[in-house]
Each structure stands twice: as C-alpha cells, then as structure tokens.
Amino acid sequence: MKTHLLEMPDNPAEATRWLEGHLVGLDLSELVAELLAVHPAPQETATSVQELLGDRLDDVLDRGLADAAPEVVSELLRQPLLLFELQELVLTKGGDYWNRVRTHSKDIETRLETGRQRLTALVTTQSQGKPEGNQASPKALLIIWYRRPWFVSLATAATMLLAFSVYEAFRASTTETAGSVSSTWGWNKPTSRPLDGPAPAYLNRLAEAAEEWFSKRPEKPLALATRIAEFRQGCSKLILSTHEPLSDEDRRWLIVRCRLCAAKLDKHLAALEAGRGPLQVRDEADQTIRDLIKAIRARAEEVTSCTIG
Predict the structure, then answer these.
(1) Do 236 and 257 fall into the same domain?
(2) Closest CA to 166 of 210, 240, 228, 235
(3) What is this structure's pTM?
(4) Same domain flag for 90 and 203
(5) Domain that holds residue 33
(6) Over the stretch 189-218, which tens digit does the pLDDT of each residue have?
(7) Do residues 294 and 189 both lie within one domain?
(8) pLDDT tens per residue across span 29-40
(9) Is residue 167 part of a domain?
(10) Residues 94, 148: Cα–Cα separation, whole Å
(11) Residue 171 within a domain
C-alpha cells in the first residue's frame, strides 16, 4: 500500500506544491488518514478554513497555497480534516491556477477520458426516445461537465456515473432477483440515526445498522453493485447528517471515517465494473465494512470511558 507522507518533500516550497497536488487529486482521503494517524489532536484548533486563512483565503483560491504563510500550511497538516473543506473550496471556487497544478494521482488523464466517454454514452442513452422537453437536464449536465476545470470535471463525472450505475444496476438486479434488493436498510433507514440519547448508544446503533450489510450475500455482479452503492449512499447520509448526540470532536471523527469508507467503496465498485470477480470484490467490501464497524464500536467504548472518568 502506498504511503503518501513518505513522498512529502523536505523543502517547504516543494512541500506546499506537493500538498496542492493532493488537493486536486483523487487520494486526499488516504493522505488525511495518514496525517490523522501521526499527528495528535492539537490543543487549539481552527473550526474552519475561513478561520485559519482569514483574509488570505481568496488569495489562496486564486493563486495557491504559496500565498499563505508557511505556518498556515503546517497547520493544515496538523489539522488534516480541514483539507477536505479546502478541497471543496478549490474545486468550486478556485481560479485558473489550480487547473495547472500537477496531481499525484496515477493515470488521471486516462481515467478522465474513460469517464467522459462513458458519461457521453450514458447521457445519450438516457435521452433516446424521450420528448424534447425532457432532454434538457442531462444535456445541460453534460455541457456543465465539459466547461468545468478538469479536476472538477472528474469529480462531477464520477458522481454522475455512480448515479447512473446505481440506477442501471438496481433496475437490472431487481429483474434478476425478483425485487429482493431494497435500499431501505442500514444507514438509509431514518431510525439508524436517532436524534437523542447518549453518544455511546448512538454510535453503537450506527454500528448495528452497518452490520445489516451482511444480511444479504449477492453473488452476481449487478446485485453486488447495487448492494455496494446502497451502503455507499448510507455513507453520504452520515457525512451530511448533524449527529446531534455527538460532540463536535466525535462528529468530525465519524465524518472522516465515513469519507474514508466511501472512498474505498467507490474503488470496490470500480473494480467490479472493471471485471474483477464479484466474490473477491464482496470479500474486500466485507473487510472495509468490518473495519468501519470495529472503529465505530471502539469509539463508543472510548466515549463511555471518558464519560465514566
């Protein structure tokens, strides 16, 4: 497994450019996980990128991290969860500078071209045989996709392709399995995220809901793709939920764990679509979800210990 931190340059200017490459690449979740493992939580933390960068935020979005003080870059590495927020700002509001930043992700141009071709084919297929008034939405999405910077285009394409893949896989597998696949399980059920109660009970309830993954064991590619996509959808719901029973620290911890799990599930789905055997992919997805469940239950125990102490 690649360790990104081992490739970080010692020279501060080069390290800044290296970090920019991860902000526009596909491996930021892996880097954040490594940083969280090696850096203890700082005593004083910024609550947002805006707070950390202050009036230099616009300069960074226009001209890159070189416009930020060196200590700010160091602070981003000490508080790696802020990198997710900064990446979102770069992707949605960044200037032309970020189009020229070299990413560390391998074969990204090939993956972009593959995504473009598949997106074009899918939108064309979706538009065939529909009234003209119903064709505007997919065509508009395709136009937007082409006009965005290349790294935003890749993220947009991945999102749209996932949505189309879920739809196609669900439709096919529903026919194949006579309606045995349901999306109202796991974290997709509202009851999996109770609005009150102690934090340990809340975390354990999330772990129990995640264990529903193992209640069905699809062996055919389309059915497995649907199952993975449905769990992935549950990850999105957790990432975007308020988690009122949790403290701010526990909420941030849960969100980053869900992001990391979501990134791995995306890779499992991509491997399945590339032709890897469904049983092998299912085993890999099993391990990803087991690791997440184990981490959530361990966090619940830590919260319980802190409460008692």
Answers:
(1) yes
(2) 228
(3) 0.52
(4) no
(5) 4-100
(6) 888 777 777 999 999 999 999 999 999 999
(7) yes
(8) 778 878 877 766
(9) no
(10) 11
(11) no
* Structural domains counted in the chain: 3
Domain assignment of residue 114, yes or no: yes
Closest CA relative to residue 169, chosen from 206, 129, 208, 224? 224
Please say whether the beta carbons of 243 and 232 come within 8 A: no
| Residue 275 and residue 295 in one domain | yes
3-state secondary structure the chain: CCCHHHHCCCCHHHHHHHHHHHHCCCCHHHHHHHHHHHCCCCCCCCCCHHHHHHHHHHHHHHHCHHHCCHHHHHHHHHCCHHHHHHHHHHHHHCCHHHHHCCCCCCCHHHHHHHHHHHHHHHHHHHHCCCCHHHCHHHHHHHHHHHHCCHHHHHHHHHHHHHHHHHHHHHHHHHHHHCCCCCCCCHHHCHHHCCCCCCHHHHHHHHHHHHHHHHHCCCCCHHHHHHHHHHHHHHHHHHHHCCCCCCCHHHHHHHHHHHHHHHHHHHHHHHHHHCCCCHHHHHHHHHHHHHHHHHHHHHHHHHHHHHHHC
The verdict on 86 and 193 lying in the same domain is no
Answer yes or no: do 220 and 272 share one domain.
Answer: yes
First to last CA, the chain: 38
Domain's final residue, options 71, 100, 129 = 100
Average pLDDT, the chain: 76
Pairwise CA distance, residues 176 & 232, whole Å? 21
Determine the Cα–Cα distance for residues 151 and 23; give it in Å rounded to an integer.
10
* Residue 174 located in a structural domain: no
Nearest to 228 by CA among 189, 270, 190: 270
Read off φ and ψ for residue 216, nearest 5 degrees: -130, 140
Do both 126 and 209 map to the same domain?
no
